[in-house]
Write a structure and sequence with these properties.
Blueprint lengths: L3 E3 L16 H19 L3 H19 L1 E2 L2 E2 H16 L5 E2 L22 E2 L2 E4 L5 E3 L1 E3 L4 E10 L7 H20 L5 E9 L4 H10 L6 H13 L6 E11 H10 L3 H22 L2 E6 L2 H12 L4 H7 L12 E2 L7 E3 L2 E9 L5 E2 L15 E10 L2 H24 L6 H18 L5 E12 L4 H12 L4 E4 L4 H9 L15
Antiparallel strand pairs: 1-16, 2-3, 4-13, 5-8, 6-7, 8-9, 9-11, 9-12, 10-11, 10-17, 14-15, 15-18, 15-19, 17-18
Helix pairs in contact: 1-2, 7-8, 11-12
Keywords: Membrane, Transmembrane, Transmembrane helix
InterPro entries: SCO6880-like
Protein name: SCO6880 family protein
């Protein structure tokens, strides 16, 4: 398909001003260079060489990037990871699994999820109570809906173009809403071993069916059933506490006041989701959201929970235990998950092109894909693109004044910054986004083999950055519909 959705995706937030270095990195390099430069200025060559043996490797640790992180950052993260393992902070066990008394309504969740609270709001029209997601770490409130969507795999280019335009319109409206500014879209497959279908077949199969029809049905099961897969689609909208506080106080304050303010926005967003092709939008209650989290940790429990249809208590929403995980794999309730950040190509991508990450290759594996958006307010967007244009132009002009020719990438970045500023000035919005994907398999399987297949499926189109040393947080970002996935934007500029 040729429908363009994203263009100019190569920019980083907070690009460095001095040779690509951030201010803290530049200051650290200057301080490390002084013990070498000062002895040289005084003619002490031996002293300069002695300090260079220490300072130059230290500068390399700060400057040289390895898989999008500096070597010093990798070293610091590795030390913290080892400290967590040594003190037992990486091991987690639920209170129920430990035999302790539990409150069924109290969430018992590991890691990043421990900072979340899930109060129920008041009834919303005829939809019942909606579960609110309160992120106490970032002071945000939100809600999650489950969508019934027919997908985009069989749509034409023109239909995909319409959906892309509607998605852009939805994100543009978020930039002008004071209550909600982030949207997280999560799609995950449902592992199917065939047991549920076999049970249905045995209950509905007719004994007087012709033998030829039976043979044809079995052949279809072997060919079509092996590659068919079901999907779950969730969308989470969140907004900052600072934007909710004043209107919530006017609506009565507390959790109910914030819920009332959120409901007003969610009501309008429901129609926007239907315009994106959602056949049904169901805002999740506490029991339904707990079930979505439970099946995220334990995909094998989906069949029994669907048969019971009574939801899950919050005390049972998390895993029983998460043993000390390796730096590259997250293990939970007999399953193993590998998470990746998806790096978009600078040249842009097409609507629906990420679908290859959801192509299940083996029955029993589960794949998930999450895209997190944040629409910047118009004033903040204008400030960001002006800073980006000035930064790109200043670096290029400085090199020209010193007699250096600008690289093609720098010229392209400067042209892209100007084009982006013109687009924002014309009324278009600026959106931060992050994409993450994960693959989950039973713990006894070779998870590295399945992870390698996922990397091969998308090779040449997107780059997958494995979230080493942060697999537990990557799992939350890519698999669970709680709206966690975008870091806080510090400094106010991209």
């Amino acid at each position: 398909m040729s429908t363009r959705l994203y263009t100019g995706l190569g920019r980083r937030e907070h690009d460095g001003w001095l040779l690509g270095l951030r201010p803290a990195q530049a200051v650290a390099c200057i301080l490390l260079a002084l013990p070498v430069v000062l002895p040289l200025a005084g003619g002490d060559l031996a002293g300069a060489l002695a300090t260079a043996v220490v300072c130059i490797p230290a500068i390399a640790l700060i400057v040289v990037p390895v898989r999008s992180r500096s070597t010093a950052r990798w070293l610091a993260d590795w030390v913290l990871f080892q400290v967590g393992i040594a003190f037992g902070w990486s091991r987690w066990q639920s209170r129920a699994a430990a035999g302790a008394a539990v409150d069924p309504a109290a969430p018992d969740l590991p890691g990043t999820l421990a900072r979340l609270r899930f109060p129920d709001g008041p009834p919303m029209r005829d939809l019942g109570r909606i579960c609110l997601i309160h992120d106490t770490g970032e002071a945000r409130w939100g809600a999650t809906a489950k969508l019934t969507h027919r997908g985009v795999g069989m749509l034409s280019d023109a239909q995909c173009q319409r959906l892309a335009n509607r998605l852009g319109s939805l994100l543009a409206t978020l930039a002008h809403r004071e209550v909600v500014d982030r949207m997280s879209l999560l799609v995950r497959t449902v592992p199917d071993t065939g047991a549920e279908y076999e049970a249905w077949r045995s209950a509905h199969e007719r004994g007087d069916a012709p033998a030829a029809a039976r043979r044809a049905a079995r052949e279809l099961d072997r060919t079509v059933g092996a590659v068919s897969v079901r999907h779950e689609v969730f969308v989470t909208f969140t907004g900052p506490e600072a934007a909710l506080r004043r209107p919530a106080a006017a609506a009565g304050g507390g959790t109910d006041g914030r819920a009332v303010v959120l409901y007003r926005t969610l009501d309008g967003l429901t129609e926007s989701l239907r315009a994106l092709g959602a056949q049904r939008v169901t805002w999740l209650s506490g029991a339904a959201l707990a079930e979505a989290i439970r099946t995220g940790f334990n995909p094998g429990s989906a069949g029994s929970l669907n048969a019971r249809r009574s939801g899950v208590a919050w005390a049972a929403a998390g895993p029983g235990q998460t043993p000390t995980s390796s730096a590259r794999v997250y293990r939970h309730d007999g399953f193993a998950t590998v998470s990746y950040a998806v790096l978009m190509p600078e040249s842009g991508t097409t609507f629906g092109s990420l679908g290859g990450l959801l192509a299940v290759r083996t029955a029993g594996e589960r794949r998930a894909l999450a895209v997190h958006y944040e629409a910047l307010p118009p004033r903040r967007a204008r400030s960001a693109v002006r800073a980006g244009r000035f930064r790109a132009g200043a670096v290029r002009d400085w090199k020209r004044s010193k007699g250096f020719s600008a690289a093609a990438s720098e010229s392209r970045a400067a042209a892209g910054a100007r084009a982006q500023e013109q687009a924002v000035a014309a009324g278009h919005g600026l959106v931060r986004f992050a994409a993450a994907t994960a693959i989950t398999v039973p713990g006894e399987w070779s998870v590295e083999d399945h992870a390698a297949r996922m990397e091969n499926d998308i090779a040449g189109r997107f780059e997958l950055l494995r979230l080493d040393l942060a697999q537990d947080a990557g799992f939350v970002t890519a698999v669970l519909p709680v709206g966690v996935g975008l870091p806080r934007l510090r400094g106010g500029l991209l």
